Amino acid sequence: MNRIKLFLVVAGFLGFSGIALADSIVHRVISLSPIITETIYLLGAQQQLIANTSYCNSPEEARFKKKIGSVTQMNVEKIISLRPDLVIASALSREKQLKILERQSIPLLRTKNPKTFDQMCEMTLKIGATLGREASAKIIVEKAREQANHILEQTRSLARPKVFLQIGLKPLHSANREMFINEYIRYCGGINIAENESSGIYSREKVIQNNPNIILIATMGTSKRAGQLEQQKWMAFKSLDAVKNNRVHVLDPEMICSPTPDTFVQGLRVILPLLHPEGEANE
Fold it and tell me: Which CATH number do you get for residue 166?
């Protein structure tokens, strides 16, 4: 049975916090972010998910769950009317609204957006334990870690191309070493030209100055069409090595920017041949 023992989720490395759930069966869960929704589906607990946000579009079935608002602005009255056993909140959930839910004695699990692959794994294990899917979570995490580490080992001895991975349009954004986006490049044997920046904001002038061998585009919150238009903009900069060698690529932002351990590995498999098309790392 999907039982969870009496526990108090303590604020820690991942920032999980919430109220105790006493030996109860969690049948009715509401997710307040896409990555939480994807994690619930990954764990096979989608039957327990009764509602999510308007941004929860992956997997396809998540589109048809009841919607309780956006990631940053939920409909508190609707959530209360759905009588959930548990609401899983993200770092972007409004604390004032969460306090209202708590005053209505609705159990909360607060999560922070994972910054690293390891934190993705810890988040999956925590949600799995909470939803009575601990065994499944452990299998998923162990498999993902094994596959990611295999890719990391494959690329250790290969040449390391310079990479710019764009995740924002206006202003131009990339990822420094503190974000999991950087780990895509590191695991796949590349050098992130933005890794030492203090923030993710990065200018086109800096990209041109650092002259990356490869440009990857996965613009958060936009369609693939927006990425293709951005690709066309980059192709106008003929002095860039990435442009000269036709190595400006558009990635799926749904997979790259909001990953679970499973989709993180999928992202590695997509990016790996783009960094190492010679095939040496794909054996």
Answer: 3.40.50.1980
Nearest to 188 by CA among 255, 118, 264: 264
Residues 93-120, mean pLDDT to the nearest whole number: 94
Query: Cα–Cα distance between 277 and 23 in angstroms, integer?
Result: 52
Number of domains within the chain: 2
Backbone angles phi, psi at 196, to 5 degrees: -95, 10
In a domain, 212, yes or no: yes
**Same domain? 7 vs 128:** yes
Percent share of the chain, pLDDT over 90: 71
Whether residues 98 and 213 fall in one domain: no
Asked if 17 and 60 sit in the same domain, the reply is: yes
User: Look-up: residue for tokens 């860039």?
Assistant: 240
Which range marks the domain in which residue 41 is found?
A: 3-132
Query: What is the pTM for the complete model shown?
Result: 0.84
